[in-house]
Design a protein that fits this description.
Growth Hormone, Chain: A; 74% helix; globular; mainly alpha; two-stranded antiparallel sheet
């Protein structure tokens, strides 16, 4: 059969050919399993490893490596080998990191050996993460249309974030069944291998969106090296404004994932770990359901700054609860309520970030490498700094954290308004059978600036 003619103008294309939701769902499950091995390792790092000596330096190095390779390596590699094979090869570094944490647990009590095992694996997974997320962002946005970015990213993150619930819950149940930590975390590494296998299936699938005609973009036509294109986007006025919201997200992410567990501390370390895992599972469950619903709301509101303004009320409630409570230590009602609200707020923030990036930049690896550079750099700084913002009792100092996050949030909302106020967000088409495919010109994003 002869190939279909090029698609130009306002040609109507079958919705399922353009919007390959089944592929997005499969991608979500692949990430679910890949990150099942990572989720518990990251969230429980400050519990199962010495916080200041190993955990925070390990996580800081991971995201510093992520930032470096997002700038210099991710876009050229993804462009060279393709989005789908890049995701598979990058996922193997997650498997290696999961099993490196098992090795670190075997050497419990020897911080130097643990650091010697984890630092190289952290640098390796940082390299893999830069490729994986640049590929994921490109793949996801090529599956979506301008009307459905919020819903598609919502479905993907709902499935992917299931790992944030399943991983700690599975680990907690293993510990409750008297399975030792080394075996439990080793089993989590096995789930990461399963995720890599699913990515092989995605590799065998046709390219997303329209398999016959790939949209052109600046990165495909420009003779400028891709890492220089990434640098240009990273330091562009639009990306710098977006980065304020990105950096706010990275700091609140570091606090809720690495610092909140430190507020659980009794004489029974095994019970503490189990309770922290249950608390983390609660966070993951709330994120799943929020992601399922928030995408459709985002696509109807079509205004990220309004979404973030409403979202700031939820964040503020959490900041005040943690900052003003006289004794948050081992206060399970308080910690559960904060985790629930924080999970809702974080899911909304991530959804808005994808909406904004999809609206301002072309759907290519260069744009998503640039976005992930800011995210990973922010997370690296946040994790390195977290170890220095502990009290003498090794508890996060809320007198520092809460004003810091609150101020960051205000500036982020203002910058989000500035960078998105002049974008014309296309309303939902309301048609289920066909969508209009606009001609893609060089440098076009999924949204159109006024």
């Amino acid at each position: 059969m002869a190939p279909s003619p090029p698609v130009t103008g306002d040609m109507k294309v079958p919705l399922m050919k353009l919007n390959r939701m089944p592929d997005v769902i499969v991608l979500g499950f692949a990430f679910f399993f890949v990150f099942t091995g990572l989720s518990a390792c990251v969230k429980m790092a400050s519990t199962i490893l010495p916080p200041s000596q190993v955990a925070f330096p390990e996580l800081g190095s991971l995201y510093l490596s992520f930032a470096f390779f997002a700038l210099f390596g991710a876009a050229p590699i993804v462009d060279k080998i393709g989005v789908r094979p890049a995701m598979f090869f990058a996922s193997l570094t997650y498997c290696a990191f999961a099993f490196a944490n098992v090795g670190a647990l075997i050497h419990s009590g020897d911080a130097n050996t643990q650091l010697g095992i984890l630092l190289p694996s952290a640098i390796l997974i940082g390299f893999g993460a830069s490729i994986l997320w640049a590929s994921e962002g490109t793949y996801l946005m090529r599956c979506a249309t301008k009307q459905t970015i919020g819903r598609y990213s919502g479905v993907f993150f709902a499935i992917y974030c299931g790992s944030a619930a399943f991983s700690p819950l599975f680990t907690a149940l293993m510990l409750q069944a008297n399975v030792d930590k080394i075996t439990a975390f080793g089993l989590l590494g096995g789930f990461s291998v399963l995720g890599s296998c699913i990515l092989i299936y995605i590799w065998s699938r046709p390219d997303p969106s329209n398999p016959d005609v790939e949209p052109t973009s600046q990165s495909e036509k420009s003779k400028t090296p891709l890492f220089l294109q990434s640098a240009q986007i990273i330091f562009s006025p639009k990306m710098l404004l977006v980065s304020v919201l990105v950096y706010f997200y990275t700091w609140e992410f570091a606090f809720i994932n690495a610092c909140i567990p430190l507020f659980i501390k009794t004489s029974d370390s095994t019970l503490d770990l189990r309770n922290k895992l249950y608390l983390s599972a609660l966070f993951g469950v709330v994120i799943i359901f929020t992601c399922l619903f928030i995408g459709k709301i985002t696509d109807r509101v079509q205004s990220p700054w309004k979404m973030m303004l409403g979202n700031s009320v939820i964040y503020l409630t959490c900041f005040l609860a943690m900052g003003l409570h006289p004794d948050p230590m081992n206060n399970y009602p308080l910690l559960c309520c904060v985790n629930i609200l924080w999970a809702i707020a974080e899911a909304v923030t991530v959804n808005q970030l994808y909406k904004i990036i999809g609206g301002l930049f072309a759907a290519n690896p260069t744009a998503y490498s640039s976005f992930k550079f800011h995210q990973s750099l922010g997370q690296s700084i946040a994790y390195f700094s977290s170890g220095r913002m502990l009290t003498a009792e090794k508890i996060p100092d809320v007198k520092i954290w809460m004003p810091l996050l609150g101020g960051f949030m205000v500036v982020a909302c203002i910058c989000t308004w500035i960078v998105t106020k002049d974008i014309s967000w296309a309303p939902p088409s309301g048609k289920k059978d066909t969508v209009v495919l606009d001609e893609v010109k060089e440098g076009d994003s999924l949204m159109t600036a006024k």
